Amino acid sequence: MLASGVSMIACSASSGQARAIAERLVGVAVPSLVLDDCWKVSLDLAIFAGAHPVVLYFFPGCSGSPDDGERADLMDVVQHRAFRHHLPDLEARGYTVIGVSSQSDELQRRSARANRLVHRLLCDPELQLAQALELPTFSCDDAHWYQRLTLIAGKGRVEKLFFPVANAAASASQVLTWLALHRQPTDASDDAC
To answer: CB atoms < 10 A from the CB of 106, how many?
Structure first.
């Protein structure tokens, strides 16, 4: 149990445990939490997700590796760039992309600059979203981090959760494929009569 009351879910979650996490979250309301992005601009997730379909990708942000041996820092870069590359396609479908980690705003600013990101990176150093949604985390480098996962929300509710994300480079493509199979581009905005 983390100091903030967040329970840690082991990195090596079985496929049954991962499926249970994903199924439990579908339909759950995005919590009303105000987080700052790496430029110190605040965002209330519930209000934003209620007004805009959103893809939240959670990345560890640590320099070490969780139990699965992944070089988290390198995979973060790969995932950032994949979402940057597919951002026009996701925006064309009406979705806003936001990255989330427990990294400091300074580390996220460096990452945003280095990777030429135009989408927001939210800082959640106290793992408030992990606590509110019971998201999986792990310990590394004497700190607690999000496990890599991707959440799609529309009308303020979770529509889909990808966990675990086995391939950070394919994470954005996985979202686009799911959207193509399950959502028409107008579903995101509900502008149709």
So the answer is: 10
Maximum Cα interatomic distance, the chain, rounded to a whole number of Å: 53
Do residues 57 and 76 lie in contact, with contact meaning Cβ atoms separated by under 8 Å? Answer: no
- How many angstroms separate the CA atoms of 51 and 179, rounded? 18
Amino acid at 58: F
Q: How far apart are CA 67 and CA 8, in angstroms?
A: 13
Please write the tens of the pLDDT for every residue from 73-117.
Answer: 889 999 999 999 999 999 999 999 999 999 999 999 999 999 999
pTM over 0.90, yes/no: no
Q: In 3D, which of 107, 49, 27 has the Cα closest to residue 73? A: 107
Among candidate residues 126, 123, 124, the one with its CA nearest the CA of residue 112: 123
**Superfamily of domain 17-183 in the CATH hierarchy:** Glutaredoxin (3.40.30.10)
Q: Spell out the long-range contacts of 65-70 with Cβ–Cβ below 8 A and sequence spacing 24 or more.
A: 65/140, 66/11, 66/138, 66/140, 66/145, 66/147, 67/10, 67/11, 67/12, 67/138, 68/11, 68/12, 70/148
**Domain parsing of the chain, residue ranges:** 17-183
CB neighbour class for 179 (10 Å; exposed up to 12, middle 13-18, buried from 19): buried
Rounded Cα–Cα distance for residues 92 and 101 (Å):
25
